[in-house]
From TrEMBL:
InterPro entries: DIOX_N (IPR026992), IPNS-like_sf (IPR027443)
A Pfam family reported for this protein in Swiss-Prot or TrEMBL: DIOX_N
Domain of life: Eukaryota
Identification of the protein by name: Non-haem dioxygenase N-terminal domain-containing protein
Residues covered by the Non-haem dioxygenase N-terminal domain: 10-73
């Protein structure tokens, strides 16, 4: 009846070659770029290791994101849209004005990107995002 695909392998890419290159174009750096491109084109995503982000900060970020997305959906969406123009609506909540189809939320730095900054609604979440980015 059915044939199941092989277990999927998610590529793991180390950024250590990037940091070792110190701004120079080296064969190792060129190979790293090819590896990232292949992962994007063939798999669509990959895991990054040796990136230099502090382990404790990543764990704090994971906890805060889990807590945020563990909330009831209504509070999450209403918190995201309060006082802004956007394309989100939830159940019977509709913002007074809707935004354009090209609106987007940015969770990182927004200067020069033309996106709508999203402001986390708790001080801990906000400070964790700021440290992460």
């Amino acid at each position: 009846c059915c044939t199941w695909p092989e277990p999927y392998h998610v590529p793991t890419i180390s950024l250590s070659r990037y940091f070792e290159a110190e701004g120079s174009v080296t064969p190792d750096l060129t190979a790293l770029v090819r590896e990232v491109r292949a992962a994007c084109e063939e798999d669509g995503f990959f895991v990054v290791v040796d990136h230099g982000v502090d382990e404790q900060l990543m764990e704090r970020q994971r906890r805060e994101c889990s807590a945020f997305f563990g909330r009831p959906p209504q509070s999450t969406v209403i918190g995201m849209v309060a006082g802004t123009h956007n394309r989100f609506a939830w159940l019977d909540f509709v913002p007074p004005e809707t935004g354009g189809a090209d609106d987007g939320w940015s969770l990182g730095p927004v200067e020069g990107r033309g996106s709508m900054p999203w402001r986390p609604d708790s001080e801990v979440f906000s400070s964790t995002w700021a440290a992460y980015y």
